[in-house]
Structures are given as structure tokens and as C-alpha cells.
Amino acid sequence: MQTGLDRLLRDPGRWLDGGRVGLVANPTTVDRELTHAVDLLHREPSVDLRLLFGPEHGIRGDAQYMVDVGDGIDPGTGLPEVSLYGATFDSLSPTAEHLEKIDVLLFDIQDVGARYYTYAATMALCMRAAAREKVKVVVLDRPNPIGGTQIEGGGLQPGLENFCGLYPVPQRHGMTVGELARLYNDGFAIGCDLEVVACEGWSREQYYDATDLPWVMPSPNMPTLDTAIVYPGMCLLEGTNLSEGRGTTRPFELFGAPFVTPADLVEALRSLNLDGVRFRACAFEPTFDKFRGERCGGVQIHVTDRTRFDSYRTGLAVLHTVHRLWPQHFAWRTEPYEYRDDVPAIDLLTGTPEVRTAIDDGAEFASVAALAKTGTEAFDAHRPAALLY
């Protein structure tokens, strides 16, 4: 299998035209030998690499989530590093001054197939800035690690746009980052000068472990492919006072809180007859983030059939069930989230306030799950033309 980076390195001039290059990168920006693209491109005589741009977690991936990343100098090459993750929303985009120094903006980061994952938003904001400044964007594609056929979730109501959801794309979208770039550019009218260097040898039904590529953690709390499989649903817990397992060795697979009785939660979740998944009662003690140092009653998700498992439906089931069992303890997150302080975090994640209000009002789970699948009309209309595989 060949990634977009592999193909670019075979013939850089085909896509870069000898121009000055900026690279948006993180730890996943490597070839199959695990050599970073910064080093590969820096030593390639035909590539004029001028600037490096780092998304959330940084180019080397050493910052936790929602932690500001500063500018710096790459220690290996001496190239300037520009942070695209700071304290304000404006800090998420390259400036006109940055883009004046380059002719081509390369984007090469492994996505995980979920709307919330901020790298695709970074790409979209780079594309918007490049469109204004007439800079070419080249996206080096990589596989969607959780496959390209299963779609879960709903859209995004106008007014709820945020850094974990800029466009009405479902929570599990079944697209590669290159396909998302095409969708954003044409379907959602960014209109930059875009070229996608597609992968060779990847097919839509393949998960990452069906490729011969090494897994590099895309972020500190995405340690394995198993994490990515449950993430499109279990990330919803970030909008609550439940621990999503940060500070454990199995983030997003483990979840709970000090007020949870594990056996009761497992019994209630099993009664929903969710496909492709089993639940195991357990306890854990996070080393950081929510409930640091406290014993949490919890549950571990065990996916038994990827093709039948619906992560988003499972995440909604967790919210609905915990709210029903422990209404006096369960709470929605009220702190600012992804550069928005005017809307509950859960509404930003689900894309609609209706899910939250239905759960609060005691609606049946089937009704909540149905509400969460609405609003995909624009996505459904434009996705087919954006697909590459």
C-alpha cells in the first residue's frame, strides 16, 4: 500500500512544481519506515521546505488535548514551527504573513474517521486561508483507519459550528482526509486550489490493520485502532461529567464515574441489545483529567463485531442510561469547549440541542437515537462526488 506521502516522494515535482513548501504535520506524518516527512522532505534536493505547521498536540505530539501549543524551531532541521493550536479561534489558521512565504501548503496527517477529531478542522481552516491568499493546497491522503463504508450519526445545525465540527458531516463519516478535503472544497464551497494525492492499494472496506502500515498514535489518547473504533460514539462523554477514560491505558474504551455502580450499568446497557458489543463491569482510577486519583465505577467496551457495531449509537446509549440511573449525579459539561462558551458542549458534539433535551425530558432511547441521525442532507448530496476509492 502506498500513502499520499509515498507517492509524493516518488516524484515531488509533479505536485510541488518547485514552489516554496509549508507542511502541516504531526507524529503520524511518516513513511512505512517511520521516518518523518519533515526529515524526508528537508533532505530531498527538489523540495524547498520553508515552514512547518503543527496542529493540536503539536508536530511531535507531546501536548495533551486542549493544551495550547507554541511556536518554535524544529530541532532536527532548524525550520520554523508555526502553531495552529492556541488560545483563540483565530490562532487555528495560518496567517497571511505565513502564507506569503510559501507557494504550496502540504497537509499530511492521519485522521481517525470521526467528525470531532480536530485535524480535519485544521485542514479546512488551512484551505480557507489558502483560498484567500491564492496558495495551492496539496493533501497527502491516508486510509480511514475505521474503514470507508460505515456511516454513523447526524449533521450539524447552523450556529453550532465549532473546532470539532465545522461542517454538517456525520460523527462517523466513512471518508479519508483527502476525500474530506474534496467535500469541503466543492460541496461546502471553500474553493481553494486543491490537489489530493490519493493512496494506492487501499479499499473502502479495509480497517487499518488490513493495511501493511505501522500504527502511530495520532494523538496522546488514541493509542490503538481499538480506540479509534469506539471513539465516534464515546467522545460524546467529553460533553458530560463522566470520565471517558482519559488518564487510563484504555481511553474511550473505559468510562465511568465515582457515582456509577458498574453491575447496574452493565445490566442496563445489555438490555438495549446493541449489536456487535459486550460490556464488562470494572473500576479504574484516572491519573489525570476527570476524577484524577479517584476510584471510578466503570465499564469497558468490548467490540465483538466491527461490521455490526455502531459506536455512535453506543455512546448515546451510555448517556441515556447513566442519566436515567443516576439523574442526581449525572451532569452536562458547562465549561467552555472547543472555543465556544455559549453552547453546551454536548450540543456541539451531537450537532443538535434536541438530543440533550430529549434525554433530560426522559424520552425513550429509540427516540433519542432517531433524533441524533438527522441533518445529513448536505453530506448525503455531496459525498459521492468527493470519494476517491
Overall description:
This protein has 389 residues and is of the alpha/beta class. The protein folds into 2 domains: 4-220 and 379-386, 3-Layer(aba) Sandwich (Rossmann fold); 225-371, Aspartate Aminotransferase, domain 1 (Alpha-Beta Complex). The chain is 29% helix and 14% strand. The chain has 13 helices and 10 strands. The protein has helices at residues 4-10, 12-16, 37-42, 96-99, 118-133, 177-187, 225-234, 262-270, 311-325, 345-350, 353-360, 365-371, 377-386; strands at residues 20-25, 48-54, 72-73, 80-83, 104-108, 136-140, 194-197, 254-257, 277-284, 296-303. The strands form 2 sheets. Strands 3-4-2-1-5-6-7 form a 7-stranded mixed sheet, with helices on both faces. It has a 3-stranded antiparallel sheet with strand order 8-10-9. Helix 3 (37-42) links the parallel strand 1 and strand 2 (48-54). Helix 6 packs across helix 13 and helix 7 (225-234) crosses helix 9. The protein is globular and about 65 Å long. The chain starts with a helix and ends with a helix.
Average pLDDT metric: 96
Q: Do you know the CATH topology of the largest domain?
A: Rossmann fold
**Beta strand %:** 5-15%
- CATH-assigned homologous superfamily of the largest domain: Uncharacterised protein PF07075, DUF1343
| Secondary structure: helix percent | 25-40%
Helix/strand structural class: alpha/beta
Rg, Cα atoms, Å: 21 Å
CATH architecture of the largest domain: 3-Layer(aba) Sandwich
Q: How widely separated are the two ends?
A: 13 Å
Number of strands: 10
**Strands of the biggest beta sheet: in what spatial order?**
3-4-2-1-5-6-7
Largest sheet: 7 strands, mixed
State the domain count: 2
Q: Residue ranges: pLDDT <50 for 5 or more in a row?
A: 63-67
For this structure, what is the CATH class of the largest domain? Alpha Beta
Number of helices: 13
